[in-house]
Amino acid sequence: MSGTTIRLGKLFNAQSNRAFVVAFDHGQSLPIPPHLGNPVALLERIVGGAPEGILVSAGMLAQAGRLFARRGAPAVILRADWTTLDPRMKSEFGERYRPLVDPADAVGLGADALCTYLIGWPEDGAMFANNVEQVAATIQRAHRVGLPVIVEATLWGSRVSDQRDPEALRQMCRIAAELGADAIKTEFVGEIDAQRDLIEEVGNIPVLTLGGAAAAPDVVAQAARDAISAGVRGLIFGRNVWQVADLGDTMRRLSAIVHGGEGSTPLA
C-alpha cells in the first residue's frame, strides 16, 4: 500500500466511509464579503466544527498551521493552483490558469492531499490543453511523494451555458480519472440517476460534490441528501457553510447528512 492510498484513506470517516470537507480557498480567486472579518478566526471556527477535511490555500495554511497541529484535527487539503473565477477579472483579463504549489512543497507545508482544477470548455483551447498537461504533471509529482490529488472537474469555461450538463460533466470526470486522479470533486448535476451514471463512469475513484454559490439552507440540505443518495462519497462545501448565520448548526446538519444521521445508509 502506498503513502498516497494511506493519506487518502484517512480523509474518510471510519464508520460511514464518507467525508464532509469545508472549502476555504475562495479568497484566492473570488471576492470575499467584508463582514466575515479575520479569516484565521473564521477558519478556527470551521476547524471547531470537526469536518473530516478543510481545503485551504498555501498562504492560509502558513498563517493557521497551529489549528491542524494536533491529533484528530481535520485533514489539510491544499489548493495547488489558481484560475479566474471572479467574473470582473475574467471579463477584463480573460480566462487564466496557473499551477502554484509543487507537491513536494505541499508536503513540507503539512498537506495531506492536493486539490487542482480541471476546467472544461474555456474559450481558448490552448488553455485547456495546458490545464490537462499541468494536472497530469501535478498528479505524477504528487504520487512520487505519496500525496493524493483531488481533481476538481468542472464546466466553468466560457463556452459552456450549463455548468451542470450531465453528459459534458461526465466526460470531464472521466478525463480526470484517466489522468490519474485519486478522488474527484465535481458538481451535483441535480438528478440522482444522472449522478449515479457519472460516478459509475469513473470506476472506483471516490467522487465528492462541491457546493457552489450561496443558496437557501433547505435547498443546500436537499442537494446534499440527493448527492449522498446518488452514491457520492462526501461533500466539499464552502460558501454554504461559512457565509451563513449559524456556522455551527450548518456544519452539524451537513455532517449528519453525509454520515447517515438523516436517514442515509452508510457505505459498506
What descriptors fit this protein?
single chain, 268 residues, alpha/beta, TIM Barrel, eight-stranded parallel beta barrel, disordered C terminus
Descriptive report:
The protein is an alpha/beta fold. The protein has one domain (3-259): Aldolase class I (TIM Barrel, Alpha-Beta Barrel), CATH 3.20.20.70. 43% of the residues lie in helices and 17% in strands. It is built from eleven helices and ten strands. It has helices at residues 3-10, 39-48, 58-64, 87-93, 103-109, 125-144, 166-179, 192-201, 217-230, 239-242, 247-259, and strands spanning 19-23, 53-56, 75-79, 81-83, 97-99, 113-119, 149-154, 183-186, 207-210, 234-237. The strands form two sheets. The protein has an eight-stranded parallel beta barrel, surrounded by six helices. The protein has a two-stranded antiparallel ribbon with strand order 4-5. The protein is globular, with a radius of gyration of 17 Å. Residues 263-268 have low confidence and may be disordered.
